[in-house]
Amino acid sequence: MKKIIILLILIPIVSYGQNLSELTEQNLFRGGNVFLLDKLNKYDNDIDGTPYLNPDFDKGQIIFENGNSYGGEIRIDLVAQNFQIKGKNGKITPIEVNNKVKIEIKGKKYKLHAINSSEYGDIGILRECIELENISLYFFPRKKLQKPIEAGISAPTSGYGKTDNPEWKDDGFYFFLMNQKYVRVPTKYKKLVELKLFDTNKLKSFRKTNKLDLRKEEKLIELVEYFNEN
């Protein structure tokens, strides 16, 4: 997919904390660090579910390192790993941003990260859970296409064996960022111990005291806060 690369010098438009400038293609040209894609991904309507974080556009902000920000309607394409903005005229424009830009939607901040993983890809849009000096936690929202299981016996009169449509299913997970490396957070305690990321005795003590559940974000944040200091 071709990209129109915007390499213009950042021009102060509005300071963060003031009224937002309108999110338009023209304003993005002024902001820099944004790539306008020349083609919008289209998906088969016969697939159930949605390839987006949310199917509808939500009010959000694009925030640049210098504090400039633009407000408008935004959604995230989790399959293509890019953002889409919707103009007042209803036009949808797909965009990519570099790691100097944050996207805020419903109070949650998203950013493009260089994961550099043979398993999970070179880059990914991650949601910030907590960022600390020694360890940070991010959520990687993803979608996978789940195909229906073909029935072995057909019985058209009863409907038995009829296959369903394929479906976009949630497939997200968490990352620890430690020593500049992204490590997938396992959902089993034994697997976490095997990774040898933390002192085993301290981890065992923390688990007992805090009822660690590796599937719950609030518990993972507590874990990160503890080991950032210990």
Describe the 3D structure.
Helix content is 17%, strand content 37%. By secondary structure, it is α+β, with helices and mostly antiparallel strands. The protein has 2 domains: 3-183, no CATH class; 186-230, no CATH class. The strands form 2 sheets. Strands 1, 2, 3, 4, 5, 6, 7, 8, 9, 10, 11, 14 and 15 form a 13-stranded mixed beta sheet that branches. A two-stranded antiparallel sheet has the order 12-13. A hairpin with a 4-residue loop joins strand 5 and strand 6. It is globular, with a radius of gyration of 21 Å. The protein starts with a strand and ends with a helix.
Name the helicity range: 10-25%
| Distinct helical segment count | 4
Q: What proportion of the residues form beta strands (DSSP E)?
A: 35-45%
Poorly predicted runs are 1-19
Number of domains: 2
Keywords for this structure?
2 domains; globular; 230 residues; 4 helices; 15 strands; alpha+beta
